[in-house]
Amino acid sequence: MDLDAALRDATRRLTEAEIEGPNREARILLMHAIGADQTGLLRRRGGKLTEAEAGTFQAMVTRRAAREPAAVIIGHREFWSLDFLVTADTLIPRPDSETVIEAALDYRRDRPPSRILDLGTGTGCLLLSALSEFQDAWGLGVDLSPPAALVAEANARRLGLADRAAIMVGRWTDALAGRFDLILSNPPYIPAGDIPGLMPEVERFEPHLALDGGPDGLDPYRRLFGDLPRILLPGGLALFEFGIGQAEALVALAETLSLKVIDVRRDLAGQPRVLAVSHP
């Protein structure tokens, strides 16, 4: 099969499926199918695909046209310049979540944490990215999903961080007895009634366990904010990602529970995205 023709056909199919950026998505899938990077793809333009490459590429395009996310199809996604394994059991790491790591560095660069906790770790992207920056720290990731915890463990090994990261299956802080000086979390924050209206890539293919934040999307924060005095060291920092339109309610909740609100950080699109809190 002619490579350029295959790419054009894939772009057409993804356009018809209403995929945003269909040519870019087709190129990502093609690079994975032939085992090449951007340079390798350019070198092969005008050439042919092998029968195996063509079959793999066509199967991947069919899955993407059905709105399965490209990150799940190819099995990995970049986050904080690190490469993370991704499966259908985990949320796909998103650039918005890098705001959590940026905030951690801004607030703790001069006082690096020694013990980091990531609640709802998923792929481990927050925990492992933080450990890559705070190189004397040890971290614990907690997730309710055993398959997600296995993905986080695999990512820790792949990134050479397994000696400083432990992954545990559990419900939030139930099994925790120690305290941490940096806590990170991207908990479920989608109101349950809004999930059926999400884009198909999310509603059909990402785990609802990691999306459903209860009737108003804030149930996990009520639980976690209440636990902070027990698990956050005095002078420690907790960073929580949240959804669009939730900042005001979360600030009010934190203040009601006598937490100290340090900042509301905005993401690259200018949306309020991360709440930084501590406790007296």
UniProtKB/TrEMBL annotation:
Ranges for domain Release factor glutamine methyltransferase N-terminal: 6-75
Enzyme class: transferase
Methyltransferase small domain span: 114-189
Residues engaged in binding substrate: 186-189
Binding site for S-adenosyl-L-methionine: 120-124, 143, 172, 186
The protein's Enzyme Commission number: 2.1.1.297
Keywords: Methyltransferase, S-adenosyl-L-methionine, Transferase
Superkingdom of origin organism: Bacteria
One example of a Gene Ontology biological process annotation: methylation
InterPro entries xref list: DNA_methylase_N6_adenine_CS, HemK-like, N5-glutamine_MTase, PrmC_N, RF_methyltr_PrmC, SAM-dependent_MTases_sf, Small_mtfrase_dom
HAMAP family, per the entry: RF_methyltr_PrmC
Family according to the record: Belongs to the protein N5-glutamine methyltransferase family. PrmC subfamily.
Entries under PANTHER family matching the protein: HEMK METHYLTRANSFERASE, MTRF1L RELEASE FACTOR GLUTAMINE METHYLTRANSFERASE
Function: Methylates the class 1 translation termination release factors RF1/PrfA and RF2/PrfB on the glutamine residue of the universally conserved GGQ motif.
Name of the protein: Release factor glutamine methyltransferase
Record lineage: Bacteria, Pseudomonadati, Pseudomonadota, Alphaproteobacteria, Acetobacterales
Gene that produces this protein: prmC
